[in-house]
Amino acid sequence: MSARTLARFVTATRFEDLPADVVERAKLHLLDTLGAGLAGSTAVETRAVLDMLTGGSVHGGEAGGRTGEAGGRTGGVAAWGTAVSLSPRDAALANGVAAHAFELDDTGGCDHSGAVVVPAALAALAAGGRPVSGSELVVALVLGYDVGRRVLEACGGYEAHNGAGWHSTGTCGTFGAATAAARLLGLDEARCAHALGLAASASGGTWAFVHDGSMAKRLHAGRAAEGGLTAALLAAAGVTGPRDVFAEVWGGFLTTFAPSTADPGALTLGLGERWRLLRCAIKPYASCRGTHSAIDALRAIQTDTKLTDSGIAHVEVTASPFLAGMCGGRDVAELPAAQLSLPYALAAQLRFGTVGLAEFGAEQRADPGVAAALDRIAVHPDAGLDAAGQPIVTVIDVAGRRHVRRVDDPRGSPTNPLTEAELTDKFRRHAARALSPEAAESLARLVRGLDRLSDARALLPALTRSGS
Questions:
Q1: With 0-12 CB in 10 A as exposed, 13-18 as middle and 19+ as buried, what is 67?
Q2: Between 20 and 30 A from 331 (CA), which of 6, 162, 183, 215?
Q3: What pTM did the predictor assign?
């Protein structure tokens, strides 16, 4: 199909076309992503990126040296949670890295849509140089989530595309970022189509990081945000992109990135009727979403049986080969590896009773009690389990009794959502790493009333540390 079909949808959709539940979910995911990004502004990866962009040194989430000027239109855009001012393109990169840095961001979109779409959208607000209503920002975010997920589905879905070695946040996320940016920059149908075509040239990212716990995974969200924004800015400047980017031609995105699993019809199936944002999840735990069902299953067993760490002899997890390969690692010396480790997530639940960001600290990862718990946890791949299915957790207590649980609908999913109180608490805890409580509450109020804001650019100064 031609990118023009999606571009027509992107440019024609009105705020009034969005169901009320989609609007509310957009605001919740925006708030959650900003909380994740504010926490992530303190991460070592974010500091390193800021150091690279500014040519200065980074301490406590702030960078010294010159203000970033490279990479796009000039104009000050905050690196969230800091007093650093960057160009729009640099801000999209840095804030995308920050939003994904601690595995706190949402999932189920491109996959990590929030960390890609939101940084690109807010950078586009600044790059556009004109007032944009809050309701228009809502539309842009919803469309970004929609297109990014549709591209992943057209690649055959999460398991097929990621199972082939691609990290879909980096490969498909560029299209979501380009969509949101193109909408906010006011691109017409033709130039929006060019932006989508150009986004393919910024796609990339593989799962090589999973083998050694490198920081590369965090960069994929930032690069996708930057790449999508750049595609939209280039299209606005008159640069053309391939109109047949999704067609079954040599060099087409789908034939190149998904040669044996492509489903081009998924790009437009239920367009404007089945909003992909509604299938996204907000994380309750600071780990890969693939670990969450097992955490919930272990917690449920502990609740039902009153078993504590000392009363549990072994924990056995039966998982699909895909999940076992992605999250079965046991080397937790580095934070990225620990957050992808299903055994560590369960060990943290046994040792600390929760699996929040604090439980992934260096001291906690080196805790002797965690090491002892890890020794009692085993993950067994079972080819009979579908890749999309949830793992089965079996707890053997010290008396030899077996307790089995499978959670098909983990916390934070659309059908088992976090409560408003839980979401608010999550945002407050993570925003507190960069903003004062008063500044965080002010930001939260702006987001809750986003669809009533006359100019969404009011969000930008609220994200700076100087705003606290």
A1: middle
A2: 162
A3: 0.95
